[in-house]
Design brief:
about 10% helix; 8 helices; RuvA_2-like; mainly beta; about 675 residues; signal; single chain
């Protein structure tokens, strides 16, 4: 009874635990270079809160919010004092500050609170979401064909999304997604479905339909949320072993389609899966024996033109595999096998940088991974070998030196002939191939108001790369970010990053031949530098109004040329009262070239995201309005517009707009029942 009274008191005193925290605050980054898949995976986690009385170490650490010491404190408290009565009880865990709990709040729930305190909530619920979006100006792809340009998009410029899900956190999840991109002919161009059953005796997890799989450090299967290198320099270094999760994203690649089963007996787990899914791919003309090959996989998901439609489902992929692991409360060791077969051989173009790329119809991966947690640190790693003989390895450690200092260290090596189609381990390259690197990150918190984070990453590429006509190139990247929180409702941050790589640089050279002046193109691999700066200020002016201000800038330079520059400034405001909420932005940007494009996170309708690259010169505006029609029905409307200065068109190719501005609208309604 005393515990319940304490929780009620905490709920009255600390109501801002459930205060709105921006995506940018949680992600801890300016979102530059963050992939669409990363955001989609993060949104899936946010839309399915975890029960703090049922969550295990791997799942909670997978949120990348709590440090090693904080994770230990959480589980020690739960072990010593029993189940949490409410999420407010988390304030009694000594290591968990209010700022940490604000970041954690969107991802957690407490069934004990529902059962004990009698909250009017349902564990099982269904929701249906419908979304429409469109660019208001006409793109060339939707105009009438001309004699010189006859290729056009197949259908209307409206993009549709229909999504349904029923979820009971204890045992069952059913859902489907139907999507059509702008210009596509079929309103069911992409469909996805899943059925998940959990916690039925030794059957821990069964998924039928579409799913992702994350084991070890993501060398073989890395289908989970991870930012890699970011302003969160410690926690994103390590990947948790999450097993299989239903796939509910609108991205049309990077998932399995079939059956996954996960069994648990005491501290042992066994997992098996099979997948049979069609992939988009570029088909080549039949060879002399009539064999049809594909040159590359297509991941855009667009099927708007004749050529894009021809690439749709051109390659059939069959995958199967399994694994076994042993897990204690804070440690895990496991092995995994994965076999992949294609119905057509993959044959890359004959380029030097493609010499070690995958070719053929099958790939086999064998993987060993481990994670061991001490009282102050975690050591982790994975070693994976493909049947080509290539291998990948990730070895790392993260830990809390004391209450003020956290540190991470990671080494990775991916040989040029290592092949993993679902890998997403920590790396500089977008794929885990042809790279060796070592990363060191640090976080220092001298007081509750101040925090600074930094990392240094050195990387080396033993073989040629695309647009790098030389083997054995190298580079480094370093970042420093300062956070200052003068009060509970305001925050100031500044971030500086420097990246150095070796890349191709081309220029024109004049020469004499037969008494005539001619020009030729000279290409040389040379160091390339890019500096970026981001600053952020947020403040809650009243209980209903908050503001955010951002300034970003960059400089880009090859060794032989003068630097080019770009910058952007934006002002946001958000108002909410009762059932209404409104967010607006005005931004100005000016960049000398595309290399200096400025990335800035934008608020969107729920379960959607936007982080466009501002480049050129102009103004950017948007507004997002939401209204709770009743407790079960919510409506969103988003409008955005970019006005460019000193240019007559926007975009290129079939996406070109013949006026210097672009406007987009998006409407969404969600019904919870």
């Amino acid at each position: 009874m005393k515990k319940i009274l304490l929780l009620i008191l905490l709920g009255i005193i600390m109501p801002n635990l459930q205060a709105q925290v921006s995506n940018e605050d949680i992600l801890g980054t300016s979102t530059e270079g963050v992939s669409e898949e990363t955001f989609e995976n993060w949104l899936q986690i946010q839309s399915h809160p975890i029960d703090i009385n049922r969550v295990d170490y791997e799942s909670l650490s997978g949120l990348a919010i709590l440090s090693t010491a904080q994770l230990r404190a959480f589980f020690d408290y739960r072990k010593n004092f029993g189940p949490f009565m409410s999420i407010y009880e988390l304030q009694s865990v000594p290591e968990l500050s209010l700022e940490i709990l604000k970041k954690l709040a969107p991802f957690i729930t407490c069934e004990q609170e529902i059962n004990t305190l009698g909250r009017d909530l349902k564990l099982a619920k269904s929701w249906l979401l419908i979304r429409f979006s469109q660019t208001l100006e006409e793109k060339r792809g939707f105009s009438l064909p001309t004699k010189t340009s006859i290729v056009r998009y197949a259908n209307s410029p409206v993009k549709n999304l229909l999504r349904y899900k029923y979820a009971n956190p204890k045992s069952l999840s059913i859902g489907f997604t139907i999507e059509k991109d702008e210009g596509e002919n079929n309103w069911t161009d992409f469909t996805s479905f899943h059925l998940q059953i959990q916690n039925k005796g030794i059957l821990k997890n069964l998924i039928i339909g579409d799913y992702q799989l994350q084991m070890g450090q993501g060398l073989a299967t890395g289908g989970g949320f991870s930012l890699g290198k970011s302003a969160e320099t410690i926690l994103f270094t390590r990947k948790p072993t999450l097993g299989g999760r239903p796939y509910t994203s609108t991205l049309e690649s990077g998932f399995f389609r079939g059956v996954l089963a996960n069994f648990q007996w005491r501290k042992w787990e066994g997992l098996g899966f099979i997948s049979h899914v069609s992939r988009d791919a570029n088909q080549l003309e039949p060879d002399s024996l009539g064999v049809v090959s594909v040159s590359s996989l297509q991941t855009s998901g667009f099927h708007r033109t004749t050529s894009e439609i021809a690439d749709k489902n051109a390659l059939l992929e069959t995958s199967l595999g399994g694994g076994i692991s042993y897990q204690s409360e804070f440690s895990r060791i496991g092995m995994m096998f994965q076999y992949t077969n294609f119905d057509k051989p993959i044959l890359k173009t004959n380029k030097t940088y493609n010499q070690f790329e995958f070719a053929g119809v099958q790939n086999i991966l064998m993987s060993f991974y481990y994670n061991y947690t001490l009282s102050f640190a975690q050591v982790f790693g994975e070693i994976t070998r493909s049947n080509s003989g290539g291998y990948g390895a990730v070895l790392g450690a993260i830990g809390s030196l004391n209450r003020r200092w956290d540190m991470s260290l990671l080494f990775r090596k991916f040989t040029p002939d290592f092949h993993s189609f679902y890998g997403n381990a920590f790396s500089e390259n977008t794929r885990n191939i042809n790279e060796t690197g070592i990363y060191w990150g640090v976080k220092f918190m001298p007081s509750r108001r101040w925090q600074w984070t930094a990392y240094v990453d050195y990387f080396y590429f033993p073989w040629y790369k695309y647009l790098v006509d030389k083997p054995r190139t190298q580079g480094f990247e370093t970042l420093l970010k300062l956070n200052y929180q003068p009060s509970k409702v305001s925050r100031i941050s500044g971030q500086l990053r420097l990246e150095n790589k070796e890349e191709n640089f081309s220029w024109k050279e004049s020469y004499l031949e037969n008494n005539k002046t001619k020009t030729r193109t000279i290409t040389e691999v040379t160091p390339r530098y890019r500096w970026t700066f981001n600053s952020y200020y947020s403040n809650k002016l009243t209980s209903n109004i908050s503001i955010q201000s951002r300034i970003s800038g960059s400089a880009f330079k090859f060794k032989q040329q003068n630097a080019t520059y770009g910058w952007a400034i934006s002002q946001d405001a958000k108002w909410s009262k009762g059932a209404w909420s409104l967010a607006v932005r005005t931004a100005y940007f000016s960049t000398q070239d595309y290399d200096n494009r400025q990335y800035t996170y934008e608020q969107d309708v729920q379960y959607a995201f936007s982080f466009p690259a501002y480049y050129g010169q102009g103004w950017r505006y948007y507004s997002v309005l939401s209204y709770d029609i009743n407790k079960n029905l919510t409506f969103w409307l988003r409008w955005s517009r970019t006005d460019y200065i000193n240019q007559e068109t926007v975009g290129s190719g079939l996406d070109e707009i013949p006026v210097p501005h672009r406007s987009d609208v998006k409407a969404q309604i969600r019904w919870v029942f």
